[in-house]
Amino acid sequence: MKILKYLLVYRRFLLIVLTPLLLLPLPLIIKTKEAECAYTLFVVAIFWLTEALPLAVSALLPAFMFPLFGIMGSKEVASAYFKDFHLLLMGVICLATSIEKWNFHKRVALKMVMLVGVNPAWLTLGFMVSCGFLSMWLSNTSAAAMVMPIVEAVAQQITRAEAEADMLEMSCSNGSTNLALELDENIGQSENSDWKEKRKQVNGYDNDMGSTVCTIEKENEKEKEQNLPPAETGRKSREDKNSGIFKVMCLCIAYSATIGGLTTITGTSTNLIFAEHFNTRYPGCQCINFGSWFVFSIPIAVIILLLCWVWLQWLFLGFDFKNMFKCGKKKTAREEASAKVIQDEYKKLGPMSYPEIVTFVLFILMTLLWFTRDPGFFPGWSSLFPKYKGYATDSTTALVIGLLFFIIPAKTLTKTSNGESTAFGYTPLITWKEFQSCMPWEIAILVGGGFALADGCEVSKLSAWVANKLTPLGSLPLWLVILISCLIVTSVTEVASNPATITIFLPILSPLAEAIHVNPLFILIPATLCTSFAFLLPVANPANAIVFSYGHLTVMDMVKAGLGINIIGVAVVMLAIMTWIVPLFDLYTYPSWAPNISFSNSTGL
């Protein structure tokens, strides 16, 4: 037992030491560059999946392993760790830092909830829409962390309102003694008459007397429960319903934070990793940008969000159309309590401050510049620089706007009663310290490690070898290949981080598409979207963990709900990739920017 205890305590250390040693025969026996690159890839992938080392530390392994194996020079590997992706990420984090600092996110969330009303079902949808909208521009974790305290306040206020209503009903029922006596007499009479009937039934079944009497006793207990005072029965049913409402509200925040991130390239790190990998591997294709991604992903997110809302309502509350769409009916205690909390929270914010207005204007400006850079259906602003076509990317816009947050002052001149202007000390909208606290450096290094691995696979010809071995999959129907890749990615991302999962699979799926002579976007887009579908477990992604920490959910609640959302997500992505995404990128045509791979050279791997 002692040995097992020590093994359990030092399991991470043993994994770190044994993984490279056990895989060492691969490069020693098969002495090729492909085998050496595969060894590096396996070691890094295992460390990423198990998180034996921090993700960023594991991502640094190729920086010294590739030079030692003679695959790439140290300078070449180092250049892979900082790409256009990192500049885009820095610009977006500048915006997110200002939004969080000046509480603009809270104003947006509360306003959206106020617009949809306080009916429990519509209130849930309001929280989902507001959280989903925030996660389009902020990280999924930040969006969930921002909205969840508002949800908790509303939930607690609902509980208080219901408790007060219960106390009022109980006091009224205790005061009406005559009604209570009549109720007790009726209950006693009904019990006596029922017992007489059941005894008659028992006399007819002498051989099975014991089991029948037990059955009667159980039925009698059930009837006593059913004959509880109406106030008590109502209180129990309301407690069960409140518990269901809490679960729905919590889960809707966790899931909408993830779903909202699907809609923009900057919405989640997996989308950014895909965009950088795709643009690096296929530089001749300029079809993936902020606008094109938004056009095909917004219908996917909207459909999944609505179906998620319906699924959660049905699973925990039942889908009551009559109460959902009631018009002109008086608000219940719960609805009035919810409305009061939301209105009070919004009033506390006061009128929009100067920093909030500037942040909002810069946010709108950044979004417009992203959409109009190269929309495709009309000449964008990038056409104003015909000599430098392709030079400006989405990161250019993000950096220009991001820089303004460090320049524009956070306070304006104010006039005193004498009419003189008073100048405050110059402070920009955000400071470098605030930016650093929001910047996800671990993700930045992790993505850099993924780019280094991808470059190593190309240089060592490991990608070509993988593509050669995957060629037989071309005999399968295309929809089945896409479905298999989606299901594999969705399963892995439940136990591994989303960025690590997409970083591992992109260098595998790209050669697969080239090997079976299919437009790479046909496989890469659905796989990228499905990488975000980590809905099953509290540890699957940070948004789930934040919501689970509030104590309203069990693991089984998340598994039940998450399994349904996973199925919905994969089904909607499959529908999208086979319908409206096809004409956007002409997916049924093998593009000229994708390589035509020939497999004349064989390796010993």
End-to-end separation: 42 Å
Strand content: under 5%
The computed structural class is mainly alpha
Average predicted confidence as pLDDT: 78
- For the secondary structure, the number of strands is 2
- In terms of per-residue confidence, which ranges show pLDDT below 50 for 5 or more consecutive residues? 176-225, 599-604
Query: Helicity level, as a percent range?
Result: over 70%
* Shape category: globular
- Computed Rg: 30 Å
Sheet of most strands:
2 strands, antiparallel
Number of helices: 29
Subcellular location: Membrane
Keywords: Ion transport, Membrane, Sodium, Sodium transport, Transmembrane, Transmembrane helix, Transport
Main location: membrane
Pfam families: Na_sulph_symp
Describe this entry's structure for a reader.
There is one protein chain. The chain has 605 residues and is mainly α. The chain is built from 29 helices and 2 strands. It has a two-stranded antiparallel sheet. The protein has helices at residues 2-9, 11-23, 25-29, 33-50, 55-59, 61-69, 74-80, 84-101, 104-116, 120-137, 140-175, 177-203, 209-226, 230-261, 269-281, 290-316, 321-324, 333-349, 354-372, 394-405, 432-438, 441-459, 462-470, 478-492, 498-515, 520-531, 542-548, 555-578, 581-585; strands at residues 414-415, 421-422. Keywords: Ion transport, Membrane, Sodium, Sodium transport, Transmembrane, Transmembrane helix, Transport. Its main location: membrane. It is a multi-pass membrane protein. GO terms for molecular function: sodium:sulfate symporter activity.
